[in-house]
């Protein structure tokens, strides 16, 4: 019997819903405590709305915290603006000081972010983030609703980090290269989705969109995979959710077979995540295909040089 329950809060910016998050946490801990289950919490936030009260609550309830920053200061401020046009980077750094007072100076030493504007993004400047106590970042390109050339530019930026990581203490992780290394070195020959949620594995749990009150068993980023909570009578065990998820996976497999199986990179891509070949409606995302083609060429050339 499982004696742990994991709960992950994500956004948008989840701290906009702080009162609701707080109620959910207290309710879950109350119910889990009655059954001898340990509740574990994680949250992803940009910290702009962090207060002393929130930081104390997160620490008291043993939250694991992930922070979103889109690169160095200038790159972040081009993407993450307030309604008045001002960038949010300086505010995040100030709120980071509050967070570290509760979690320790060496806490939160890595962040995750998106590369949005490849024409103005400088990979060399990423190492400046070490000045703010960071030692690593997980960066990913935005490949939704962009051109194929924009995607190729972003691939070339990610390729530069392969070289920079060998010369700088600050490390940038890119998940595609990790998957490529795993698949190239794999002893067994098998096809697998990149995204565990879209693979239909039953251990992914349930996702709830608090803004739209939709429930997901597959992936909260795949809009077609969710159902309104009211239609499910607000019951996460409603079999209608499982049947809907199963149909979505079936449709995704059909799209994979008809759209992707003739592609030379299908074994690498897997057509799984919406950052790969298929989008959230099970249609081809040509920008993502172009990105992976460029990344594969970069990876092969680097492997040849390093052999």
Average pLDDT works out at: 86
Number of strands: 9
Determine the N-to-C terminus distance: 47 Å
- Helix percentage range: 40-55%
Give the topology string: H per helix, E per strand. Answer: EHEHEHHEEHEHEEEHHH
Looking at the structure, what is the overall shape? globular
Helical stretch count? 9
Helix- and strand-based class?
A: alpha/beta
| Structural Rg | 21 Å
Low-confidence stretches: none
Report on the biggest sheet.
3 strands, parallel
How are the strands of the largest sheet arranged?
A: 1-2-3
**What proportion strand?**
5-15%
Description:
With 307 residues, this protein is an alpha/beta fold. The N and C termini lie far apart (47 Å). Helix 2 links the parallel strand 2 (38-45) and strand 3. Strands 1-2-3 form a 3-stranded parallel beta sheet, with helices on one face. Strands 4-5-6 form a 3-stranded parallel beta sheet. A 3-stranded antiparallel beta sheet has the order 7-8-9. It is built from 9 helices and 9 strands. The longest helix has 22 residues, at 239-260.
């Amino acid at each position: 019997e499982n004696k742990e329950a994991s709960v992950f809060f994500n956004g948008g910016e989840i701290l906009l819903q702080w009162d609701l998050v707080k109620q959910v946490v207290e309710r879950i801990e109350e119910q889990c405590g009655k059954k001898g289950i340990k509740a574990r919490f994680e949250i992803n936030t940009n910290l702009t709305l962090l207060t002393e009260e929130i930081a104390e609550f997160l620490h008291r309830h043993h939250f694991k915290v992930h922070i979103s920053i889109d690169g160095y200061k200038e790159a972040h401020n081009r993407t993450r603006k307030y309604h008045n046009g001002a960038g949010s980077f300086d505010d995040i750094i100030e709120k980071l000081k509050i967070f570290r007072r509760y979690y320790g100076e060496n806490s939160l030493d890595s962040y995750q972010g998106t590369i949005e504007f490849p024409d103005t993004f400088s990979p060399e400047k990423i190492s400046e983030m070490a000045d703010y106590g960071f030692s690593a970042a997980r960066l990913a390109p935005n490949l939704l609703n962009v051109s194929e050339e924009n995607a190729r530019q972003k691939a070339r930026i990610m390729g530069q980090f392969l070289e920079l990581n060998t010369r700088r203490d600050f490390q940038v992780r890119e998940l595609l290269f990790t998957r490529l290394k795993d698949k190239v070195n794999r002893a067994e020959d098998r096809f697998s989705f990149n995204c565990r949620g879209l693979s239909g594995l039953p251990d992914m749990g349930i996702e709830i969109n608090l803004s739209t009150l939709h429930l997901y068993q597959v992936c909260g980023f795949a809009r077609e995979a969710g159902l309104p909570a009211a239609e499910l009578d607000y019951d996460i065990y409603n079999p209608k959710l499982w049947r809907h998820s199963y149909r979505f996976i079936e449709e995704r497999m059909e799209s994979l077979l008809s759209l992707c199986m003739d592609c030379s990179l299908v074994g690498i891509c897997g057509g799984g995540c919406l950052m790969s070949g298929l989008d959230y409606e099970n249609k081809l995302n040509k920008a993502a295909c172009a990105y992976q083609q460029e990344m594969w060429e970069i990876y092969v050339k680097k492997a040849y040089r390093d052999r």
